[in-house]
Amino acid sequence: MLGRRAADAGRARSGDGSNGNALRRLLRAVAAIGVFHEDAVDRFSLTPLGDGLRADAPESLAGWAAFVGRPHHWEAWGHLLSSVRSGENAFRSLHGVDVWTYRSEHPEERAVFDAAMVALTRRTNASLLEAYDFGGFGRLVDVGGGLGTFLSALLAAYPSLHGVLFDQPHVLDGAEELLRAAGVADRCRIVAGSFFDDVPEDADAYLLKSILHDWDDEEQRRSSAPAAVRWTSAARCSSSSASWGR
Ligand SMILES: C[S@@+](CC[C@H](N)C(=O)[O-])C[C@H]1O[C@@H](n2cnc3c(N)ncnc32)[C@H](O)[C@@H]1O
Questions:
Q1: Is 194 in the pocket of ligand 1 (CB under 6 A)?
Q2: Residues whose CB falls within 8 Å of the CB of residue 117, separated by 6 or more in sequence, listed in order
Q3: What does the alpha-carbon distance between residue 128 and residue 117 come to, in Å, rounded to a whole number?
Q4: What is the arrangement of strands in the sheet containing 162-167, beginning at the earlier edge strand?
């Protein structure tokens, strides 16, 4: 809607079928929280904060914004109160399956989510690399590493490190391309599977970035496979020694 130049609400509509008056009120509300700037002649432009929502912005958050607006996601948040009261997972109560099963059955939603994770993780790569010295490791498994956004940055930063990208088979489809673009594909093996069954053995470090918060304690306990026990306890070690190991 809004590019680099200022536009009034009429121009910002650009034929998308929205109501000009309603859109103007929305733009003004969003301007009030600093995403847009409204000038004296009723035109709106992006602030530095809003610029991060452009798909072509460096470290763009457009992918994340697209994800949080998906109905299957925000409808689950609408059930937060009943979830807190009942202790049941709101997403599962609403959709009948957990988020991962849902995404495996809805490839278009999975693609939106995977792109959202790429957007989010790209923004934190530099801080994570600065916060922790990975230099002592020879081979590292990124457990639930998604498309390899962090692993590719890690391998690029440590040229002698070898990596294993481990995630669900349907998620890994786009991983090769991302690793190639980062120039690290020759030092990274892509392994598909479920961390409730097994994780690759041949590594001296296991990374779980943005994983544990997805599972409650009971879900973790139900995975009785030795590998799952290992990855949860390894993650707890990471959590206590580094702030990023949630
Ligand atoms: C919140 S995302 C984090 C992705 C990545 N670590 C990052 O920070 O960008 C959680 C990841 O866990 C993966 N995942 C979920 N259940 C899994 C399972 N049973 N086995 C392997 N990976 C799984 C998802 O496919 C997803 O890529």
A1: yes
A2: 146, 147, 149, 210
A3: 15
A4: 188-192, 162-167, 139-143, 205-207
More confident residue, 216 or 167: 167
208 vs 214: CA distance, rounded Å: 11
What pLDDT digit, counting tens, does each position of 21-39 carry? 899 999 999 999 999 999 9
For the whole model, what pTM was predicted? Answer: 0.84
Q: Which two tokens stand for residue 47?
A: 């602030």
Paired tokens of 62: 């457009």
| Cα 116–chain centre separation | 5
What whole-number distance in Å separates Cα of residue 133 and Cα of residue 138? 13
CA nearest neighbour of 149 among 110, 187, 177, 108: 177
Please report the atom of ligand 1 found closest to the CA of residue 208. Answer: 6
Domains of the chain (ranges, CATH numbers): 7-51 (no CATH), 57-126 (no CATH), 133-246 (3.40.50.150)
Measured CA to CA in angstroms, residue 35 lies from 18, 95, 160, 198 at distances of 20, 33, 42, 44
Cα 1 to Cα 239: distance, rounded to the nearest angstrom: 41
162 labelled catalytic: no
- Ligand 1, atom 24: nearest CA belongs to which residue? 144
Contact 199, 169 (CB under 8 A): no
